[in-house]
Fold this protein.
Amino acid sequence: MTQHSIPLGKIFGIPIGLDYSWFVIFALLTWMLAGSYYPEEFKHWSPLLYWLMGAVTAIMLFASVLLHELGHSVVALRYKIPVRSITLFIFGGVGQIGAEPPSAIAEFFIAIAGPLVSLVLAVFFYAVQSLVAGVEPLLGLAKYLAYINMALVLFNLIPGYPLDGGRVLRAIVWAITGNIDRSTLIAASVGRFFAFVLIFAGVWQMLNGNFGGLWVAFIGWFLDNAASVQIQQTMFRGLLTGHRVSQAMSTHCAIIPEDLTLQQLVDEQILGSGQRSFLVNRGEKTVGLITLHRITKVPRPEWATTSAARVMLPFEQLKCVDPDTELWSALQMMDRNGVNQMPVIRDQHVVGMLSREDAITFLRTLQEFGSSPAQQPKPGRS
Ligand SMILES: [Zn+2]
């Protein structure tokens, strides 16, 4: 979960969070429901009732979205895939599922579970309407939830990755070709196609005076971004597969003694060399890592009296990596831990540093070699 979200508790051990952007959509939905949907359906309510039902309906909509995400998560947990969190945000919900599914079948069932939950909810709220027909607020609520859950089913089944329908498509292509990367590329390209259709349809609506089109175009733009990220990641992973940390790390990492002051460090090392991270040694032993980021957190007047040892990240807290680790999984580790560099350790000795920049430089070199495939050992993942 990001720092931008408010924790709501846990369900099945999965932390549930509310992104701050959720409040924007909550306010907008409540206002739309209280200002137009309910007054058009039911003419004689008090203003207070319109607003109350607007808010209740918006909350129930997000409860529906949460159940949809839980549908995906429960099936993922059944396949022993960790689910890190579920966050509700402006476009609905997003579940952080911790790994790629182990098989096409698993992918299929995880993907289809969310829309199935929404479909069950839509049918439930549709059926319940006749039972609550005499109570107007409940009838309005059931009607709206039946409609919105059905809309969730239809939207999510658009066969463009990373929407659920796109995941189903990916699972099918994966089952046929046996190649997960190729199926991701195909499903994400279809995702970009549908994204453009949405953007085009949204702009078209706006040109015809319907400003709801802005929302459609915005969702299309969002989908296009998500699909592009997937395409890029898959290509990166394809390029990096088979390569190890030792190939990309830099071996000339700067070492400083622990009693060096921040002032000396900045004047003598950082300004001269442009290096941004340093290993901190006590005698021969590395005891920590200091980065530009940590230095800038100390007020400038204290630099002359503060030693590197006081500001460094102690060695015990450092995320380290073995030189033989796959480069791709090392990058994922960085993402998970939110760090920009990792010391590379062999037999308790620092043998290098791996930073994101190192990985990008390595990737560029590989791409240049890409034109002569003979030079590039690339066992494809299948
Ligand atoms: Zn879904």
User: Anything to note?
Assistant: The chain has 13 helices and ten strands. The chain has three domains: 5-157, 177-241, 245-367. The longest helix spans residues 47-78.
